[in-house]
Amino acid sequence: MNNLAKKPSAEHAQILDQFIKEAEQRWDIPSITAQVLRSQRQRRFTDAALRIGQWKPWDHQPFKDASKHYIRSVAPILDDLEYLARYPRTAEIPPSALKTKMELENSASMQKNVADV
Fold it and tell me: Which InterPro entries does this UniProt record tie to the protein (predicted)?
């Protein structure tokens, strides 16, 4: 491995000079340096302030009231509420209608069995 920075050939020196000229044309290097140093000072200041008192992480995690995000009910309408909240819809008929149809079929079946006895 050769360290080209310690022994630059004429070709490498020319490429380096071209690179430096292009960088100076594209970017305001002193301004970027000043912005980086200012940002580092601000982050050090913030870090020092956050270390005083109760520690809090840098990332913000907003409080979420779970009572507003989840359905908390044992009412018969619960299945319909879950059906309406679901996307994509799982069926064309809401669950309460399915239950009613199934209950009707079951009761008709039970009545037939009773009649057979």
Answer: Choline_sulf_C_dom
Cα separation, 89 vs 99, in Å, equals 17
3-state secondary structure of 14: helix
What six digits make up the tokens of 41? Answer: 């000072």
Rounded Cα distance between 29 and 23, Å, is 8
* Burial state string for 26-41 with b = 16 or more CB within 10 A and e = fewer than 16: eeeeeeeeeeeeeeee
Element counts in the chain: helices (H) and strands (E): 4, 0
pLDDT digits (tens, 9 = 90+) for 29-78: 999 999 999 999 999 999 898 888 887 677 777 788 877 776 666 666 76
Q: Which residue has the higher pLDDT, 57 or 22?
A: 22
Within a 10 A sphere around the Cβ of 54, how many other Cβ atoms?
5
- Alpha carbon 10 to its chain's center: 52
* Residue pointed to by tokens 């360290």: 3
